[in-house]
Design brief:
Number of helices: 10
Distance between the termini: 28 Å
Largest sheet: 7 strands, parallel
Structural class: alpha/beta
Radius of gyration: 19 Å
Strand order of the largest sheet: 2-1-3-4-5-6-7
Length: 227
């Protein structure tokens, strides 16, 4: 297996040192540097062909999101795992398209290693505490959504990367009918509210594997808390 090259960017050095210590006994990963978040880290990203970047933020903001976008311009293949505090669903929805994983600083070292391995395998990861918080925020609104049996079938296939043609063939209906159902589903959930759709699918146990992952389309994992 190819050795994965990691960089750690930090706001708090003591936390960064703790993260780097975690990697000492993990095979298949090599730590290239521990660097403060800022211009110095951007320079390191230009120099090192890193595979994974772990970023420890004091807190998340839209300003930090602009920094992430700068990193993406330097290396669009770089996998980015964020460690920070709990944020609102609205803010996290802005971050998710730009990152590959998000964890709270209160998560265990074991879950951190699990997240690194999932991110290195090109899978998105949300720690269990983040997922639980998001689901609670969405529970009230998703409780009010009622889908027909056919819409439930199509929603599952949508989350499993099926296109209109594939869905039509599986359900023995026309593609125009599939498009109509998808339009109705989007109208009920809101066109861009992917987290609310995930909440509904998990709560209703619609997906074939209710544990790993909850969404094969975006590859978001909501793992149980590790002891």
């Amino acid at each position: 297996m190819k050795t994965q090259i990691l960089l750690i960017g930090y706001h708090q050095r003591i936390l960064a040192d703790a993260l780097s210590a975690v990697f000492n006994n993990i095979k298949d990963f090599a730590l290239a540097g521990v660097v403060p978040i800022g211009d110095e880290l951007l320079d390191k990203i230009r120099v090192y062909e890193a595979d994974i970047l772990v970023l420890e933020f004091n807190s998340l903001s839209f300003l930090n999101l602009d920094y992430i976008k700068k990193i993406r311009l330097l290396n669009h293949n770089l996998k980015i795992l964020i460690l920070s505090d709990l944020v609102s669903r609205r803010l996290l929805e802005k971050w998710l398209p730009e990152i590959d994983g998000y964890m709270l600083k209160s998560c265990s070292a074991e879950e951190f290693i699990f997240a690194i391995r999932k991110v290195s395998a090109s899978e998105k990861y949300l720690c269990s505490k983040v997922a639980t918080s998001l689901f609670k925020q969405e529970q009230q609104s998703s409780d009010e959504i009622i889908l027909t049996e056919r819409e439930r079938e199509i929603l599952v296939l949508m989350l499993m990367m099926e296109n209109n043609h594939q869905i039509a063939e599986k359900l023995n209906i026309s593609e125009s009918t599939v498009r109509t159902h998808r339009k109705n589903i989007r109208h009920k959930f809101g066109t861009s509210n992917q987290i609310q759709i995930l909440t509904y699918a998990c709560r209703e146990r619609l997906l074939p594997d209710s544990k790993h992952p909850i969404c094969t389309n975006c590859r978001i994992y909501c793992a149980p808390a590790l002891a």
